[in-house]
TrEMBL record:
Species, as recorded: Pseudomonas guineae
Lineage, opening ranks: Bacteria, Pseudomonadati, Pseudomonadota, Gammaproteobacteria, Pseudomonadales
Known EC number: 3.1.4.52
Annotated compartments: Cell inner membrane
Protein name, entry field: cyclic-guanylate-specific phosphodiesterase
Domain EAL, chain residue ranges per copy: 441-693
Group of enzyme by EC: hydrolase
């Protein structure tokens, strides 16, 4: 590598001599830059490009600066570049002073021609590079030693302290400056923890034997202020490059602190950081242990898998900070519902698992689940806000439901999903058919994806009847899946799956277009139906393009809007009642009829119900079935409410003549049910339209004379 030398002298003869000797250097030429003034030199050094200067030769007598001030200015600008002065033969004192200030050496005038000049320059360049590397190495060592938690103390050959890192300063209570040159046994006073007898510092053994040593166990370090800590350490000799012993280094740490750290790390690995509850890994261990015990004692245990209902909604609307606090509060309530021998753990997100480990029967588990639901029902106050949350719980038991840790968790999880499906805020025991159903759902989902393209869906129609005249007023479209191998499948088996995998939106669009088109066809054939009713699922109803897809179905089919009735179940409307009002208003603006389906099952808020622009209330089948048991109290109440809200009331699921009689008697306008007709194919429905329904109404009409 060519070294770049900056020569600063006003003496052109000196410059020429140096140029010549450096050019002819036997180990390769130097590259010389020559300037005649200090100001020019400083200017050159300020330039970082094109090439860095490796060394400087400077005459201290320059036109714009004289003497040591010249050197000082230069050195201040370039402390990292080795500098040699060019001095007069009689300027020894000035040369010595310059070296004290940082110069690497000096060349005497009159000797510039010597072949030793290039060698001297190479030496100072190399030396400077080594010095720099050493400096960096030392800085790294000091930073490292001060960053570690172990204490490090160095001594000389006689055991006198010559180094302490920060941790050693803290542990001994001695500052490096105070400890310097103090005997190691003054800085580190060691005693035995049992006998309190002084313990010889292993540094002395190291210096004596020139070998590594460990500190005797049970050693206590007494700090400068008299406080104590149990320590563990090792000491080792230090040698120079020739292998001669030069001193020793001792490394030690506080055992209590180290234990605390180890324990903390073990705790962190097994606990959830938000709630401090055992995490999945610790839970697995505990379940496995509990299974082992239960097996030996021939006893039972139970696992509760709990998932908060609609927690995502709280997290999304109020922020993660509130969500986190709620989870912490839930964790506390869960813990208050179980015994200390039970385990409450967090699986992540809003999922918790409770292990009831000691001889818990299924009844105990049900009791605990009830206690948990009750405890969660009380209002939470987080950041001055009142929050309400419910949970769905699945329960599996050992040995009845599963024999392994994984199966117990899996089955409790499956049962939890069932609890969600049962309307949330409840608990369910695992049943083996749940597993079968979970598998079936997967199979159904796989087939559903192609069913639409294969044209496997059809609509059946069920007539709605005017309960006084017995005439068909309208039709409800009910989807069926005509599977090539499995036959006709009812919606209960595939609609929830289509909802879960998002296919429901496309399916719903198809149903709307199909039903509207069919209604228009009947109209064209001269059959006057008040409306065609289409069922709308939760996801469709909330989908941003739902209103547009209704508009589209009407446009495609040419069906007048008032001939379309949308049936939305009560629980869907109430889930986010505020938003429902807006969507319903948009639909109402299209001119379609709106019906609330399965009325009576969805915990309606009556104040919202009056805000919804509804045309029809469909009383849920369960109340019709119960008429004879309850004397029809609820049915009566709904009919009265519909009347005062100016809404038509339809009774679903009429199967028996007595039910019909009751409804007629209490002025229920319309009805639907197997008593009149099952849902039927398009052709059979057209037949019903043509021929009318031979229903008991005619008999009733005759009997009552209406
Ligand atoms: P839903 O809207 O309440 O429909 C009434 C259900 O009760 C229908 O079952 C019907 O066949 C049945 N039903 C009618 N009369 C009687 C009776 O007298 N006794 C008894 N026991 N049942 C009767 P289906 O067709 O199996 O439909 C079940 C549910 O699936 C529907 O309840 C509706 O919520 C949903 N669904 C049906 N078709 C569609 C659709 O195209 N889209 C959406 N999103 N959901 C649909
Ligand atoms: Mg319906
Ligand atoms: Mg219904």
């Amino acid at each position: 590598m060519v070294n770049h030398i900056l020569v600063i002298t006003a003496n052109s003869d000196d410059a020429a001599t140096l140029d010549k000797v450096l050019d002819r250097a036997h180990d390769g030429p130097f590259c010389i830059e020559w300037v005649t003034r200090l100001s020019l030199a400083l200017e050159r050094l300020r330039l970082k490009e094109p090439v860095a200067i490796d060394a400087i030769l400077i005459d201290l007598a320059l036109p714009d600066s004289q003497g040591l001030a010249t050197f000082s200015q230069l050195f201040a600008l370039a402390p990292g570049i080795p500098i040699m002065t060019l001095s007069e033969l009689d300027a020894d004192q000035q040369t010595a002073e310059a070296i004290r200030l940082g110069a690497q050496g000096s060349l005497s005038k009159g000797h510039f021609g010597s072949a030793l000049v290039p060698q001297a320059l190479r030496n100072i360049i190399r030396r400077k590079a080594v010095e720099e590397a050493l400096f960096v190495e030392k800085a790294r060592l000091i930073i490292t030693l001060n960053s570690i938690s172990d204490a490090v103390i160095g001594t000389d050959l006689h055991g006198n302290v010559d180094y302490l890192n920060s941790a050693a300063e803290q542990m001994t209570g001695w500052l490096q400056a105070d400890a310097q040159n103090q005997p190691i046994d003054s800085v580190m006073r060691l005693v035995n923890d049992q006998t309190r007898a002084p313990v010889t510092n292993p540094i002395f053994k190291v210096l004596q034997d020139d070998a590594c040593k460990l500190l005797a166990t049970g050693t206590i370090l007494i700090r400068r202020d008299g406080s104590e800590s149990a320590i563990e350490d090792s000491a080792a000799p230090i040698h120079d490059s020739a292998g001669h012993l030069k001193g020793a280094v001792m490394v030690f740490h506080d055992i209590a602190a180290a234990h605390a750290i180890t324990e903390k790390m073990a705790h962190q690995a097994q606990h959830d950081s938000l709630t401090n509850l055992p995490n999945r890994s610790l839970l697995n261990d505990r379940i496995t242990q509990a299974i082992g015990l239960a097996e030996r004692h021939n006893s039972e245990l139970a696992l509760l898998f709990l998932d908060l209902d609609n927690f995502k909604h709280i997290n999304d609307s109020l922020g993660h900070c509130i969500g986190d606090q709620l989870l912490q509060a839930v964790a506390l309530r869960l813990c208050s519902c179980v015994r200390s021998s039970d385990t409450v753990s967090r699986m992540g997100g809003d999922e918790f698992v409770v292990l009831l480990s000691q001889n818990h029967s299924a009844e105990d588990a049900a009791h605990t689940a009830e206690k948990i639901l009750e405890s969660l029902a009380a209002t939470f106050v987080i950041a001055q806000q009142q929050l309400f949350i419910t949970a769905s719980i699945g329960i599996s038991t050992y040995p009845n439901d599963a024999q392994t840790t994984q199966d117990l968790i899996k089955n409790a999880d499956t049962a939890m999903y069932q609890a969600k499906e049962e309307g949330r805020n409840n608990y369910q025991f695992f049943r083996s058919e749940m597993n079968r159903r979970a598998v079936e759902r997967q199979v159904i989902e796989a087939h559903l994806r192609t069913a639409m393209d294969n044209g496997e869906f059809i609509l059946h129609y069920q007539p709605k009847i005017d309960l006084h005249s017995g005439k068909i007023t309208s039709a409800e479209a009910l989807i069926r899946w005509q599977h090539p191998a499995w036959g006709l499948i009812l919606p209960a088996r595939f609609i929830p799956v289509a909802e879960a995998c998002g296919l429901i939106v496309a399916l719903g669009r198809w149903v709307l277009v199909q039903a509207c088109t069919q209604a228009k066809r009947w109209e064209n054939c001269g059959y006057q139906l008040d409306s065609i009713a289409v069922n709308i699922s939760a996801q469709e109803f909330r989908h941003k393009s739902f209103v547009a897809s209704v508009t589209n179905a009407l446009a495609v089919s040419g069906l007048p809007p008032h001939n379309l009735q949308l049936e939305i179940s009560e629980s869907v409307l109430m889930r986010d009642a505020e938003a429902s009002v807006t969507i319903l208003q948009q639909l109402k603006a299209l001119g379609v009829q709106l019906a609330v389906d399965d009325f009576g099952t969805g915990y309606s808020s009556l104040s919202y119900l009056s805000q919804f622009p509804l045309d029809v209330l469909k009383i849920d089948q369960s109340f019709i079935k119960d008429i004879h048991r309850t004397n029809g109290i609820i049915v009566n109440a709904v009919i009265a409410m519909g009347n005062s809200l100016k809404q038509r009331v339809i009774a679903e699921g009429i199967e028996e003549a007595v039910q019909l009689e009751f409804l007629r008697h209490h002025h229920c306008g319309e009805g639907q049910g197997f008593l009149f007709s099952h849902p039927v194919s398009v052709e059979r429905f057209a037949n019903l339209l043509r021929c009318g329904i031979s229903s008991p109404i005619n008999t009733l009409c005759q009997a009552t004379g209406t």
